[in-house]
Amino acid sequence: MTTVALPDTDPPKRGWYKRNEIAVTPWLFLAPAILFFAVYVIIPIFQSFSISLYDWDGLGQAEYIGLGNYAELMNDRAFEVSLWNNLKWLVCYLLAIPAGLFIALFLNQTVAGIRIYKSLFFFPFVLSQVVVGLVFAWFYLPNEGLLSNMLAMIGLGPVNVLGDPKLATYGIILAGLWPQTAYCMILYLTGLNAVDPEQVEAARLDGAKGWKMLWYVIIPQLKPATFIAFVVTIIGALRSFDLISIMTNGGPFGQTRVLSFYMFEKALSEYGFRMGYGAAIAVVLFLIMLVFIAYFLWSMYREEKGGH
Amino acid sequence: MFPRPIQQASAPAQTAYKTMLPIALILWLLPLIAVAVFSIKPASDFTQGNYWGMPGSFEFVNNYGQVFFNSDMPRYMLNSVLITVPTVIGAVALSAMAGFALGVYNFRSNIWVFFMFVAGNFVPFQILMVPVRDLTLDLGLYNTKTGLVLFHIAFQTGFCTLFMRNFIRALPFPLIEAARVEGVAEWRIFWFVVLPLMKPALAALAVLIFTFIWNDYFWAIVLTQGPDAQPVTAGITSFNAQYRAAYHLMSAGSIVAALPPVLMFFLMQKHFIAGLTLGAVK
Amino acid sequence: GSHSLSGDLKIFLDTSNPAPRATMEAMIERFGAQHPELNIETTVIDREAYKTQIRNFLTADAPDVATWYAANRMRPYVEAGLFEDVSDLWAEPAIADNLASTKGAMTIDGKQWGVPYTYYQWGIYYRKDIYDQYGLTEPTNWDEMKSNCQTLLDNGVKCYTIGTKFLWTAGGWFDYLNLRTHGYDFHMEMAAGNVAWTDDRVRQTFANWRELIDMGGYVDNHQNYSWQEALPFMVNGDAAAYLMGNFAVAPLREAGLSDDQLDFYQFPAITEGVALAEDAPTDTFHIPANANNKEAAREFLRFVVSADEQTEINNGANLGQLPVNASASIDADKFLEQGFAMLSSNSPGGVAQFFDRDFPAEMAAEAMQGFQEFMVLPDNLDDILARLEQVRQRVYK
Amino acid sequence: MSGVTLDTVIKRYGNTQVIHGIDLDVQDGEFCVFVGPSGCGKSTLLRMVAGLEETTEGTIHIGARDVTRLDPSDRGVSMVFQTYALYPHMTVEENMGFGLKMTGHPSSEIKSKVAEASRILKLDDYLKRKPKALSGGQRQRVAIGRAIVRGPEVFLFDEPLSNLDAELRVEMRVEIARLHKEIGATMIYVTHDQVEAMTLADKIVVLRSGRIEQVGAPMELYRDPDNRFVAGFIGSPSMNFIRGTVQGTEVVSNGLAHAVPKTGSAQDGQEVLIGLRPEHLTLKPGSSHRVDLTESLGGVSYVHLIGPDGEKIIVEERGDHRSSIGDQVDLVVDPDHMYLFDAASELRVR
Amino acid sequence: MSGVTLDTVIKRYGNTQVIHGIDLDVQDGEFCVFVGPSGCGKSTLLRMVAGLEETTEGTIHIGARDVTRLDPSDRGVSMVFQTYALYPHMTVEENMGFGLKMTGHPSSEIKSKVAEASRILKLDDYLKRKPKALSGGQRQRVAIGRAIVRGPEVFLFDEPLSNLDAELRVEMRVEIARLHKEIGATMIYVTHDQVEAMTLADKIVVLRSGRIEQVGAPMELYRDPDNRFVAGFIGSPSMNFIRGTVQGTEVVSNGLAHAVPKTGSAQDGQEVLIGLRPEHLTLKPGSSHRVDLTESLGGVSYVHLIGPDGEKIIVEERGDHRSSIGDQVDLVVDPDHMYLFDAASELRVR
Ligand SMILES: Nc1ncnc2c1ncn2[C@@H]1O[C@H](COP(=O)(O)OP(=O)(O)OP(=O)(O)O)[C@@H](O)[C@H]1O
Ligand SMILES: Nc1ncnc2c1ncn2[C@@H]1O[C@H](COP(=O)(O)OP(=O)(O)OP(=O)(O)O)[C@@H](O)[C@H]1O
Ligand SMILES: [Mg+2]
Ligand SMILES: [Mg+2]
Description:
Chains D, E: This is Sn-glycerol-3-phosphate ABC transporter ATP-binding protein UgpC. Chains D, E: GO terms for molecular function: ABC-type maltose transporter activity; ATP binding; ATP hydrolysis activity. Chains D, E: Keywords: ATP-binding, Cell inner membrane, Cell membrane, Membrane, Nucleotide-binding, Transport. The complex is a heteropentamer, with one copy of chain A, one copy of chain B, one copy of chain C and two copies of chain D. Chain A has a two-stranded antiparallel sheet with strand order 1-2. Chain A contains 15 helices and two strands. By secondary structure, chain A is mainly alpha-helical. By secondary structure, chain C is of the alpha/beta class. In chain C, the strands form four sheets. A five-stranded mixed beta sheet of chain C has the order 2-1-3-12-6. Chain D has two domains: 4-232, Rossmann fold (3-Layer(aba) Sandwich), CATH 3.40.50.300; 237-342, CATH 2.40.50.140. Chain D has eight helices and 19 strands. In chain D, the strands form four sheets. A six-stranded mixed beta sheet of chain D has the order 6-7-8-3-9-10, sandwiched between helices. In chain D, strand 4 and strand 5 form a beta hairpin. Chains A and B meet through helix 2, helix 5, helix 6, helix 7 and helix 9 of A and helix 1, helix 2, helix 5, helix 6 and helix 7 of B. The structure holds adenosine-5'-triphosphate (2 copies) and magnesium ion (2 copies). The site of one magnesium ion has 2 residues of chain D, from helix 1.
């Protein structure tokens, strides 16, 4: 045979890098990403914690006040309102999940042109929230808006959704649900694609039909899609900012603020000069999110362990 | 397949379904259709209260001409491009490397580094606002496209790394082992073996990040000001401030601003959806 | 120019609307023509955005000249040492003599921190044709104001348009109601934080306000609109008047109202014997402390306040506002003339800047939000005032 | 009473016809196996019986009922899938009881039926587990249990064992055979595995391209194939084919050192294929074939030969007699175990 | 010169030890097959030789070189993976030449080596195709080609055929055997397929739980297993085991109608297992066993018996003699083909 002549002696002395190639390479590859991420994400999180302990207008000297900002938050009505609104967002935004599932079921057919339909239904997700906000703001206009016009058709008086402190938040959430539902729809469409057809057939032989099939067989199998939809919806709900800023600017009289908006207002807006206070709000928001992050990482950790 | 293929249903049910489809679509896209119609209406329609009727006249050229030649919109659009494209390249490059490191090597802190990226990706980004703004100011990058790009790259890297790492994990590992047995250096494995295999993921991510960044509003207003550096999402609001209540122009402007990601979506639909479902997080 | 200037001069402007923008750019061009060696770079930023961004560019990448507002509104930057002390300019006779009336608004800690370039009256702009139609005249006191209003309402016309989405418009109403109810000094005491919001005198102001609200005097859903979006009510005749600054005239004219249809009157007296005082916000130029070319910047400030430029930039074709230089002449515009007359001869109580310029930023923000809430839900008054009082105690410490 | 009868059954997908008019009678209690190359329509036919595919033309009866247009769940059939198709989110117990639950049986009845089935399949210890926690064989047992619980008249299996490894496959095969004996229901079973077909079937249906090639008991097909396709398909290793020509009463062939007697109706001069099973050939020293490779499996070994025309022949050797690579040998043919096929039509010459 | 020598090789993952001190000598040019149940450590051991897993303790020599701590690429080995591991974005040619290209060989040399390998493997027609456009067998051939091109001293195969279907598996098996003959390199081959092991190996290594149970030529293991595990593992169907006791010179057992002579050193009174291969048993009418099931594969059939203690026995029958279900039979044991194992230690009693 044709054997390549390999030296029978010990191999030539290899450089440090060569000897440690497998150990070192990942860190070389990770370095730029970690650097960027640390500088712009990780360190700022801790900085925010630290800033939240100061009274600082962003211009002059910062004054250390310990937990003063947090103490003030406890009595801040606007903060309370924001917190409640965040809760509303969290709860109502989840409606995107069943709504997305519903549309996905509706569209999960193979008729001519269905691909176009699917992509058009998905369309709202691609739009900027700024545009979505504008569009819905016009939709809600108290007199001229399409909503009022449609209500008038069925004999109901005009309604000022965004001007009504009780309705405004829900109005904005509805606007947010539009793209979010589209997102969940896509997740479910791919989820439905992955449902084992043999299981559906087995269930049909078992006599499961319609709702029963959906409930007992399909939805349990869509669990991964549901999980993802849940995660992105929660994140979306807690990050909601653009829509509020565009549609009501927090109003009327601050009733549609959420934490993320309130902190922007406190820290960076026209009259806001309270970096420390804003940071404290951000920290609270972060702590809320931490619950979900922890949950997410935990389930991912479980999967990693289970998967190997 | 669930629900049951409509082909197996009765003929009336099939017809009903096929007529429902366009109706549902129109209802679903009603707000958007309204904007599209707004954007070709004359100003007089709005002063006369004809908000939702047929356009009084067809003002496509006028309205869009106004947007393109008589406002800062083109500049904002250009800014958006100059912000979005480098961000996409940067984030994808960084995360491809990081994803490779995390997906291929089993060093001890692997999962913790990975979790750092994941967790960072999920933080409410408001918590970064004050420090990042200060950092950008300190770097002298406030109100520059570079400042915005650097931040976006960093923040998106979290998400992209999650995505890339999972993708690489799903690649058959023997491919890498085969290359190792053949004496291919690690970085060459990345370049010649892994990267070509990641093409679908790269495409999906690029499309996805493109839309995310194009549509970003929050950071645009935190880190930039004015038509020098602001992207179109922020531009549209000042455009609107300028044309308060001129719904036809605002609509035209909004549509122009929304167009690139929409085009991107339609051209790269397959990648886009793959991206969403693979990465599965925004 | 007297001596030759060189280098770069960076100017930041917030005059983003088309007309003011053109005015300022033309003015800068004239300045540039006098100093050919000088390389001038102008940046115009959206007016609303400017308000949040000034902080950033003052600390980071400071221009040599920047627009801003007088009084309390400039205090944070003065205190943070971000504005240049320009008392030296105010010592020059050309400025000291001609700009004396605005010196107070530019003074903090006994020093001057910038120069004004324009100011404008506030007051009630109304549809003369509609008033005429229902036989109404310009009111001179509170009762007439209310009875006018009642007549209009009876005929299906709202008395006042307003858009409170961005809150500050409500501040204007509070200013006038408070100035008329208790006078300039009381208002300023409040601004200085010396009066509790729960004070009965404050309640009195709100009680007056409430009369208009309860009548239904304001357009519905004003919380949805910006000030521009509220203009069509007046243009269309759904509302008869607008308490606003003089800058509203231009868009109203643009929307098609002729000078026959549009007129102006001073906010009428409420409490007898209280001297009339007015809001006349002053827009200003400042030199950031971190500026590079302060010499050129000072020269630019001198140029801006010169009588000629003041006459030019404030005329009806340009800003359409009042010049700050006493030697400048006022354009032959019916609103400018009325305004100038009002401010110079019929404002014995004093001239205030505006609610959000006289009150500290945080107080102003909270208060204006409270005003909006009050205008929508007047029954919440006690709650609102209690809240504002809480803020006052913190803000003024 | 609950046999299955197909009457000129046809299946078309759009314009492509994949089942071409099949007539078939499966007796009550019979174990019928469909075999055939991949894509021949085995699964399609089975799924048409199950009602999972529509029948384009023809009728299907189960017992006396015409079920051609009935819903799957109304046909009284149960099906076991290749991939098990267990519901991953349900326990073994729930999986098995799901069908009864859906049809509204009281839970006490479900319980007893599940208990009965799990006894038969020895699944009692796993009732509370989810499928994930089961081995492949256990999963397949659960799938069968699920089929049993519904007490169907007919069981359908689509390659139920092909996802199992060799050892388990043998074990499960035996279990299915036993199950059939125990409950005696009609069963139709699709496979591409020789051994399964031979060992399980009462009746094998050999399909090719949507048509039946031959139907019969396993040993019938093995001993008496109708054509070359069936002859080559049944038996492992496959039958060897050698070209030959009928000359008088004999068949002569390059590949055989000596002429062999012709069988049946072969005509003088007819071109034929001589079919010879590896187990019916023996070797003796000679010159016509060369030993190319030998594979010894312990008790048996396979000798790969190259014939004079380059054709490959496999011969099975038993016991300790072993040929070595390179040996020159002749084939010894047992005239009782020899088949002739017409070279053109490939039909058996009987 | 380029054999492989393992010296008390140990592998631990954290605290779990999976390879327990293995000593093994693979001669130059030898074809060595690792078999054993799933999870026994076959792949781990192979990957340690390749350098893809670190060796915790012990040394590995290839030829005279200690390669224990060398990088995979410096060991002079090539590996063929179960999943082929072809680079999907490269053509067949590029796949085969990639390793050489990356290690800086001139392209003319690469070309000639690739041409040589593709000639051996008959891949010339596919050189420009991507792996996607190849069948499973062709892909596996490319993977082997890639291994050949580098001209390694040792080839390593990890279940290279288990992703192929039965027919192809047979074909590729023959090809690998031929390849080994042609290039004569040392090969180590992991499989769990009986047939592959028996037919390919010069030497079989039977592993269990990270330990070697027995090493030897295939027929050696078949004829002379060291213990019950090896006896049961090699041969298909598996050897039957019947409990018995040594009494004097005989072994008596419930499961046998008559005592059988003891062999070797069995002690009086010793509890033993009698090992009997299915192919070495014959049946006669009797009473000790009942025929539970018969499986006929054409040439051969397997009779499943239930013994007096309920134990299961499989007997292979050839020819036309067939037992029927329910028959009562006795086992006829050939004393020459009978193995005794100690019941406790399960070691062979020789
Ligand atoms: N939905 C379909 N549309 C068109 N043709 C189809 C469809 N389903 C199956 N076929 C075709 O019908 C034929 C029979 O397929 P079927 O699955 O019944 O084969 P099979 O015998 O079960 O094969 P295998 O052994 O591979 O499972 C094939 O040629 C297949 O391509
Ligand atoms: N990374 C690892 N960490 C811990 N244990 C491992 C790891 N890799 C393998 N093992 C264990 O080592 C043992 C041997 O695994 P190996 O893959 O070598 O088995 P195998 O004989 O190849 O099995 P198969 O036939 O299933 O391929 C198994 O028990 C396995 O669980
Ligand atoms: Mg099939
Ligand atoms: Mg293995």
